[in-house]
Structures are given as structure tokens and as C-alpha cells.
Amino acid sequence: MRITENRENEIIVLAVEGRVDTNTSPELQDRILKSFQKGNELIMDFEELEYISSAGLRALLLGHKTAMSKGGSMTIRNVNEDVMEIFEDTGFSDILDIEEE
Fold it and tell me: What is the rounded distance in angstroms from the CA atom of residue 19 to the CA atom of residue 59?
């Protein structure tokens, strides 16, 4: 997994590439929480994300809860079919703010 951080005005954008699994999810969680220390708005760009495990879903849920507690937002964009299927199968598509293309 590789995470690249950019800014779009005051919004932090984390582009995640590769696979988020048990081994890499702690890094994702850490980057999400650090992003919310810098600001209240976060975009997760999943254009290059191949797979996300339940551990990765927990990191996203923590990010979502953090955003809500700060009155901010966490948006996920550029989700491919495989990852979207995981979100739908687990009910995360109803919880997370996912931009539809």
C-alpha cells in the first residue's frame, strides 16, 4: 500500500494505492487520524486501490466517526467495482460518504 497526501484548497486528499489489509490498515488509520489533526475535511481517493479488508474497513469507520465528532467530513471517491462490492456487501456503502461517478 502507498498513500500520497495532497491538498485541494483546505481539503486534505489521501490517494491510496494497492491493498489495505491487516498489515497495512494501521498505517491507513494513522494517516486518516493525522489528517483530521490538520483539518476537518478529508477526501480519500481510491482510484488505485485494489482491495480493502475488514481491518481497512475499521480504519475507514474510525475516520468517519472522527469526522462526525469534529463536525467535518470524510468523502471517498474513485471507487472501483471490486471495492464498491465490498462496501455494499458489508453495508459500508450506507455508512460512508461515497461519491458516485
Answer: 13
Question: Scanning the structure block, which residue is given the C-alpha cell 477526501?
Answer: 43
Contact status, residue 48 vs residue 14, Cβ threshold 8 Å? no
Q: Report the amino acid identity of residue 62.
A: L
CB neighbourhood size of 23 (10 A) = 11
Distances (CA, A) of 33 to 28, 80, 86, 87, 99: 9, 24, 23, 21, 21
The answer to whether 17 touches 48, Cβ cutoff 8 Å, is: yes
What is the tally of structural domains in the chain? Answer: 1
Apex 6 CA angle, 5 and 8, nearest 5: 145
Over residues 20-54, the pLDDT tens digits come to 999 999 999 999 999 999 999 999 999 999 999 99
- Residue 25 is part of which domain span? 2-98
